[in-house]
Amino acid sequence: MIKVSVKPTRTPSIGILGSLGYYDESDLRRLGGVYRNKRYEPETIESPWRFKSHYAVPAPLITRLFEEDAGKQPTFMRGWQNRVETWDEDHNISLNNGLIVSQDAAEFYLKWQDFESDLKRIKEGDMDLIDEILHRHEIENGDFFARVPKPHQKAGLAFFLRSMEMDAGHIALFDEMRTGKTKQAIDIARYLLKMQLINRVLVICPNTIKRVWAEEILLDAPGYGCFSTIIQGTRAKKTSLWESLFFFYITNYEEARAGKESMYEWESEYHRNGSESGYLLVCDEAHKLKNPDSQQSKAVLGLNPKYSIMLTGTPVANRPEDAWSLSNFICPGILGKSIWDFQEEFAVRGGYMGKNIVSYHDLDEVKYRLARISMRRKRKDIIFDQTNYQKRYGELKGDQKKAYDDMRDMLWAEIASAGEYTAVQAQNGLVKVLRLQQITSGYLPKIEPQDPMEVKPKTNGGTQGKDDVIWFKENWKLKELDEFIDEYLDDIGKLVIWSRYVPPIELLTDRYQKYGALMIKGGMKKDDGIDNMYRFQRDEDCKIMVCNILSAEGKGFQPATFSFFWDKWWSPHLNKQAEDRTLGLKNPVPTTVISAITEDSIDDRLEYILLNKLDWAATILGDDKARIEVPPTLSKNTLLYLIAKPEEAEKYRVEMRGEWE
Q1: What is d(CA 128, CA 135) in angstroms, rounded to the nearest whole number?
Q2: Which of 356, 381, 406 marks a domain boundary?
Q3: Which long-range contacts (CB under 8 A, 24 or more apart) does 413-417 make?
Q4: Mean pLDDT across the stretch 126-144?
Q5: Is 349 part of any domain?
Q6: Higher pLDDT residue, 325 or 459?
Q7: Residue 199 placed within a domain
Q8: d(CA 290, CA 292)
Q9: Is residue 659 assigned to a domain?
Q10: How many CB atoms lie within 10 A of CB 619?
């Protein structure tokens, strides 16, 4: 017999050291934290089970080996106190005061204390330790990163690597919005791929940011990003994509639920082929998995990756239980074996027959447990040196798609059949093309169908209001904005929504009155616009400003740091001016700019042109001062590129670029 002194600083929680409350094999297969990917196997009936890692000894085995102590239950997780344990050297277990635990597990707990100490230093931004961890894994700024990360992003990578050193590699990044969680996840993925610890990455995110992920992967994981795919299209095409070889597979939550059979087949195929590398799972906006009983959550949380990263700025949206589902996937049992266990431990019940949850207690303990598997940084604690740009992508559906296709075909027939365009003809054609942008903005003007080309929308939004147009029932931008406001407005404080058209401005202002929404649009009295600006700046109950892009001149919308572009002006100069309305002495940090872009539409093509800094305000407004970056002529090929069908767009993009050069 030998003695080992064990003096933990506090009672460990379920899941951290292999929950001894879990007795059956199915539970032991997915123990918490450091044990997630380990397995145990019996050697012989006569000898105790040997473990590949530091698992606690299962109670049934104790019953078989020591019948005189068969009635004793393990009390390691909740009953551990400062004491000296006695170990049976032959069986590598202890039976002191009813405590049953493997010696390896006790030794690992001492190792875990060092990990917690390092984790605290990482979160405090100890760059000496962070650089030391990166160096241990052969990561140097000049040789590894495609884009050098900021200190807090290096800390996120160091946290994951330190977790890997504990045989874990399952973490959550709960950083606030606009802190660069996507880059941290891609840097981690790139490291794992480079070291051949995995052979593929599965990214599950909202549908509107699938393309954003693809673009960011190209920037931060060159060499791997070229071999990435977005799971979309027909059922046959999606099945084909799952079966193809890529480094990155990007899908959305709805598709993960609807196509879970293909996703599970993709996962199991590698196991059948004997692949030892496994894969990394990244769940962006992971708060969408907060309901463990939803089919969406069951589909995603049923995966068994080698490593996983959960990304969300709002892990707790409405109640403390929201954090249970995510934490249980990363570290099963850390907040209780089930959500009911969580409520039993932390909820206060009252009301009718004492069954309603009326309050919570010991939430500091919840915070302490989550801190072992997660990091959270706030924007105010991070120094930024540039504006953060984000994009949300969506698709046209139903009547909106039909209206867009009909209008596009009509414009195509007129423009394609014409000869070479003069400057005046190009200007008229461009104004007509604006009708497509109105459709992607969610509405159509009420016009006579026999004269579809005679009514020209005014470039400043015109005099049409929200009641003078036809709204489409299916509008992905409206759904996306609703979800964004519901999930993040309390976090970000204030939001500015930009549109070039009056109908969306009026609609959104009415829609968000419960948030004290105000608007500034063309046609308002100057004093009214100024009054609304001051109210937005000073009134805490006014959380949303909806503003016309051209009406923002000379105004400031601090302390808002987030802008949402419902649609854009065709001038990058004017759009940039709108972005800068949230900057100033009251906002020393740059703003975050979110653009809503309808895929394979005029929004998509316009974004490409804006990125190339073409200022077409001169063409529409006839303003000579705005002609700094305008090509000599607005060509027919440019108009055809704007309205082309997806399969023809690339042809006209190349021809348009050739004319510019």
Answers
A1: 10
A2: 381
A3: 414/453, 415/636, 415/639, 415/640, 415/643, 416/640
A4: 88
A5: yes
A6: 325
A7: yes
A8: 6
A9: no
A10: 23
Which contiguous run of DSSP H or E holds residue 409?
helix 398-416
What are the residue ranges of helices labelled H in 181-251?
A: 181-194, 210-220, 235-243
628 found inside a domain: no
Contact call for residues 573 and 519 (beta carbons, < 8 A): no
- Straight-line distance from the first to the last Cα atom of the chain, in angstroms, rounded to the nearest whole number: 84
Alpha carbon 141 to its chain's center? 25
Are 192 and 163 in contact, with CB atoms under 8 Å apart?
A: no
CATH of the domain at 262: 3.40.50.10810
pTM for this structure?
A: 0.68
Cα–Cα distance between 590 and 268 in angstroms, integer?
A: 45
Which runs of E-coded beta strand occur in 463-606?
Answer: 469-471, 495-499, 518-520, 544-548, 562-565, 592-598
Q: What is the pLDDT of residue 142?
A: 64
Residues 186 and 99 in one domain: no
Same domain, 85 and 180: no
**Tokens 């059949």 belong to residue:** 417
Spatial distance between the Cα atoms of 215 and 607, rounded to a whole number of angstroms: 14
For 70-128, the pLDDT digits (tens) are: 333 333 322 222 233 333 444 444 444 334 444 555 565 567 778 888 999 999 999 99
Is 342 in the same domain as 224? yes
CB < 8 Å & 24+ apart, contacts of 78-84: 78/11, 78/14, 80/6, 80/8, 80/11, 80/12, 82/6, 82/7, 82/8, 83/6, 84/3, 84/4, 84/5, 84/6
Residues 6 or more apart from 400 whose CB is under 8 A from it? 439, 442, 472, 474, 475
**Co-location of 179 and 59 in the same domain:** no
Residue 21's domain comprises 2-107
pLDDT band at 140 (very low <50, low <70, confident <90, very high): confident
Query: Count of domains in the chain?
Result: 3
Helix axes 636-643, 646-660, angle to 10 degrees: 150
- 480 shares its domain with 598: yes
Q: Using the 3D structure, point to which of 315, 350, 381 is the last residue of a domain.
A: 381
Q: What is the pLDDT, as a whole number, of residue 264? A: 93
Q: What is the DSSP code string of 606-651?
A: HHHHHHTT---HHHHH--GGG-SS--SS--HHHHHHHH--HHHHHH
Residue 181 sits in the same domain as residue 305: yes
> Is 55 in the same domain as 177?
no
Non-local (6+) Cβ contacts of 616 within 8 A are 430, 570, 571, 609, 630, 634
Mean pLDDT of the chain: 75
Q: Are 197 and 277 in contact (CB under 8 A)?
A: yes
**Do 175 and 91 share a domain, yes or no?**
no
Is the Cβ–Cβ distance between 190 and 224 less than 8 Å? yes
